[in-house]
Specification:
- This protein has about 375 residues and is an alpha/beta fold.
- The chain is built from 14 helices and eleven strands.
- The strands form two sheets. Strands 3, 4, 5, 6, 7, 8, 9, 10 and 11 form a nine-stranded mixed β-sheet that branches. A two-stranded parallel ribbon has the order 1-2.
- Helix 3 links the parallel strand 1 and strand 2.
- The N and C termini lie far apart (about 50 Å).
- Keywords: Signal.
- One of its GO terms (cellular component) is outer membrane-bounded periplasmic space.
- It holds the Pfam family SBP_bac_6.
- One of its GO terms (molecular function) is thiamine pyrophosphate binding.
Length: about 375
């Protein structure tokens, strides 16, 4: 009873304390309050991930607020545990904000670990990628793409069925083991939505059938595809998140020439979400951080790191994305058909794919 009462009390206080700009708090007042707190504590934000290094520096330069960075290499679960472990702590080990995988948003809300806040650009965030009450909201996403060594592959595949071409014998790899790695699992899931298939409930089964056919045909290479294996020619086509594929393409510097393709169908998006801790020691700095991240400036910062910002369609529609940056990306309309599976849909298909890969596809993926 005491625990439940505490959670209810924290939730109630959070609602009162986290009034968004829409509730009357002006930006000038928020900036002043955040500067008075003087610090923001983040966690699990590597500088080479999604452009976070430049984003953090941009925030500090714009507002003159120090950023205390906890454990850049932490995972989503670690972030949640950090909130739990520091409920009564206002010191430097208590995170103000988190950036976690989609499934952690709803579960953290249910545990009373988050406080609601709706940024001023709230209406431009797709409804399917945010909590209606503002407890968590999508920040950026990737879609499954094909990274293609065009020195070897002359007819670049444009959609999933193209991977079955005779020209791609011993060519196609996943960027992970689909029995355990989310990137690979989502690759199988996306294949299951390709062509005229559109039933998310059956995508896991259909994806396994597709990879069984790919394997039987001899096109599937049962190793974990990486930039090195692409360059060596052992995996001329790798199925990976577009932000990884685009980064690998840049690392290769044209040796070999590589192209990143978002398939015409079966475009599946993997979303990360932002949230403010219910126990944030610096709640106003946390709100200001969110305003910065969801501003045009912050969203383009993520895009520079090849993570598609959640407001991408809105930015593209209004001509806000620099031309030189757009030139580095697949065409903007390639993302228009992106499917954003719910947590429940992801979990259901993950169960099917990870447990039935061996029996249906029968390919032992080597590291």
């Amino acid at each position: 009873m005491k625990t439940n009462w505490m959670r209810m009390t924290v939730s109630a206080l959070a609602i009162c304390a986290s009034s968004s700009l829409a509730f009357g708090q002006g930006m000038d007042e928020l900036i002043a309050a955040a500067k008075k707190e003087g610090q923001l504590t983040t966690i699990a934000l590597p500088h080479d991930w999604c452009g976070y290094g430049d984003i953090i520096e941009g925030f500090k330069a714009k507002y003159g607020i120090a950023v205390n960075e906890l454990n850049p290499d932490a995972g989503s679960g670690d972030e949640i545990e950090a909130i739990k472990a520091n409920k009564g702590n206002t010191g430097p080990q208590a995170p103000d904000v988190i950036d976690v995988g989609l499934s952690f948003g709803p579960s953290a809300k249910a545990e009373g670990l988050l406080q609601p806040y709706k940024v001023s650009t709230w209406d431009t965030i797709p409804d399917s990628a945010k909590d209606a009450e503002g407890y968590w909201y999508g920040d950026y996403y990737g879609v499954l793409s094909f990274l293609v060594n065009t020195d070897i592959v002359k007819n670049v595949p444009k959609d999933w069925p193209d991977l079955l071409s005779d020209e791609l014998a011993n060519s196609v790899a996943l960027a992970g083991d689909p029995r355990v790695a989310n990137q690979a699992i989502q690759g199988v899931f996306a294949a299951g939505l390709s062509g005229d298939k559109g039933d998310i409930a059956k995508a896991g089964e259909e994806g396994l059938k597709f990879f069984a056919e790919l394997n039987k045909k001899g096109n599937f290479v049962p190793v974990i595809g990486k930039s090195a294996s692409l360059a060596q020619g052992s995996t001329p086509v790798i199925i990976a998140w577009d932000y990884n594929a685009l980064s690998w393409r840049d690392i290769l510097k044209g040796n070999p020439a590589a192209e990143v393709v978002v398939p015409k169908t079966g475009v599946v998006a993997g979303v990360y979400v932002q949230a403010i801790s219910a126990y944030a020691p610096h709640p106003n700095a946390a709100k200001l951080w969110m305003e910065y991240l969801y501003s045009d400036e912050g969203q383009i910062g993520w895009l520079k790191g090849y993570c598609h910002p959640i407001r991408f369609d809105d930015l593209a529609k209004n001509g806000k994305i620099p031309a030189d940056l757009l030139a580095k990306l697949p065409p903007a309309d390639a993302y228009a058909k992106a499917v954003f599976p719910t947590v429940e849909q992801q979990n259901a298909n993950k169960e099917v794919i990870s447990k039935q890969w061996d029996s249906v596809v029968g390919a032992e993926v080597a590291k």
